[in-house]
Amino acid sequence: MVNTICEELIQRRGYLVNKQIETIYFGGGTPSLLTKDELGKILNTVHLNFTVVDEPEVTLEANPDDISFYTLGFWKEYGVNRLSIGLQSFKSEDLKWMNRAHSVDESLSCVQLAKEAGFDQLTVDLMYGLPNLSIEDWEKHIDHVIDMDVGHVSAYCLTIEEKTVLDNWVQKGKVVAPNEDQQSDQFITLLRKLEGANFEQYEISNFAKEGKQSKHNSNYWKGTWYLGVGPSAHSFNGVSRQWNIANNRQYMKRIQTGSSFFEIEELSIENRINELILTGLRTSYGLNLEKLVKIGRLPKEFYLNKAYFISEGWMKDEDGYLRLTKEGKLRADFIASELFV
After folding, report:
1. Rounded distance between C-alpha atoms, residue 131 and residue 173, angstroms
2. Domain check: are 85 and 189 in the same one?
3. Residue span of the structural domain in which 33 resides
């Protein structure tokens, strides 16, 4: 797999033509399982085939049980300067049914270990809306993270997909999933406690102290070009999106035989407008109306819906940017969909 990923990097070195690489992100799957030689080979291939800035942001998603003085040492040696640690929960029962290999103790100790190794850019992931998660438990989870003194928190609401094991458990009453009101209460609690600890909500699910925002993720929301490499990886070059085949064996076979390994979608003017609406409204930067109008003409319904959301107190129009209020953030997906053209 590592050899194939490196081959794809070589084949696609022209995708980001005349672009400098400012961020490199190892995510999806479990990249913290890469050995020293494997990580080094991938990074070396990137530097040999792309123009990389002098001090890029290099992020690696890490499971708590993969974090040790040894792994932290070679990650740092190869230029990894940001870790995204998937804690998810501080309840043993939650970790068990999510099939997480780490323990609560490992969750509590791995962040300190990373700090001692010299990592000062740390993201921890939490999940809310979990079955049987009380508001009291959720507050304790947030307090644990605040006490860890990290600079960045990503918090996601669990989505129960149809025809999954979890959906089956919910249907049979084996687990009780929070309703929308309970999820909203947990989200509001998250905002209140993190804001009180000097975190800014710079994107719907992402919170950072000053200077600790993720440059890589911010670029996604701002519509910057990016190249995704590996099974299921997505890429964007301003006018089209493409995504690699998901099956590991097929991915490797097709690249090794020179066969097509991705699908591509040319983005219509409507697609480009809608993507900018969706991503822009999720951020504290807001939706740039001038940039939107440059892509294409906006229909009358857009302006009518915009006026309605402002009158409801869900949105503000400031300096040519549309930004959601706290009340609006609870309805972010609905508001975006109503503004779509």
Report:
1. 11
2. yes
3. 20-221
